[in-house]
Amino acid sequence: MRRLPPLAALRAFEAAARRLSFKDAAEELGVTPTAVSHQIRRLEEGLGVALFVRGPRQVALTPKGEALLPPLRRAFDAMAEAAEEARRRPSRRVATLSATVAFTAKLLVPKAARFREINPDWDLRLHAADGVVDLAAGEADAAIRYGIGPRPGLVGSPLMTDLFAPLASPRLGLSSPADLAHAPLIHFDWRVGAKSTTPTWRAWGEAAGVSGGDWQAGVTFNDEASAIQAAVAGQGAALLSRVLVASELASGLLVQPFGPELAGFAYEFVCPEGAGDRPAVAALRRWIEAEVAPGRQPPSDLV
């Protein structure tokens, strides 16, 4: 813990010692010469030493005063420079966007660098969580939501709709639905929408007209990102969002050996009611609409 004399007393001494005049120091500090004299006397009493030799028309520094002036002058110069730097430096503004772990990892992170190019005066904070954050409480400025709602207190604009398809590593060599009988199935737990309308292997089997399969067997993950990673690693076939795995499909890490595809839900950019014109929300919307979801639909090879 620092034991410092009063700052006002140190300022009065530094100004008077630099100018060798209580009157000139008073003019610099915007106080009276009497106030300067009082502050210096207070400092001397606190230190237990004399800092000035006082004459009828002028003052001079004692050896203790001469020793004290240089470090004090450097300290006040440093404080003045720091304050000026703070005034010159523009304050950074931070925009926070919340999305699921999978959406953040697959679509937002690869485009994060472009946020600063589109919004030079802003920094980006990505909040990845599969739970719903409270936008009204300020946990984030906006969010990417998926599913059918409702979303009381929020307004949203659609970004893209989703399609789900059976996807796997090409190393598995799947070519027809019959091959699924010999390949592990990968599942993940849904937390959005009505359970009866979420894309599942059982729903896919019904749409494909494939009967007799054990659609519950396999490996289940509690998040989509892990299911995608498992499919890329060749651990089985997964019913995955083509929106989220577009890069893996383009690179050949995953393939869609057959159909059909199941309709998913819509992704929406949401913010609290009345917050659409807030600068942070506008910055996030510019980035999302330009880079992440510029009016696109999910890619599909099989129609």
How would you describe this structure in keywords?
10 helices; alpha/beta; 303 residues; DNA-binding; LysR-type_TF_proteobact-type; D-Maltodextrin-Binding Protein, domain 2; Arc Repressor Mutant, subunit A; 2 domains; LysR family transcriptional regulator; two-stranded antiparallel sheet; single chain
- CATH C-level label of the largest domain: Alpha Beta
Quaternary state reads single chain
What is the strand content?
15-25%
**Helix count?**
10
Helix content: 25-40%
Structural class by SSE content: alpha/beta
Q: How would you sum up the global shape?
A: rod-shaped
Widest beta sheet: strand line-up: 4-3-5-10-6-9-7-8
GO molecular function, one term: DNA-binding transcription factor activity
Protein name: LysR family transcriptional regulator
Keywords: DNA-binding, Transcription, Transcription regulation
Family: Belongs to the LysR transcriptional regulatory family.
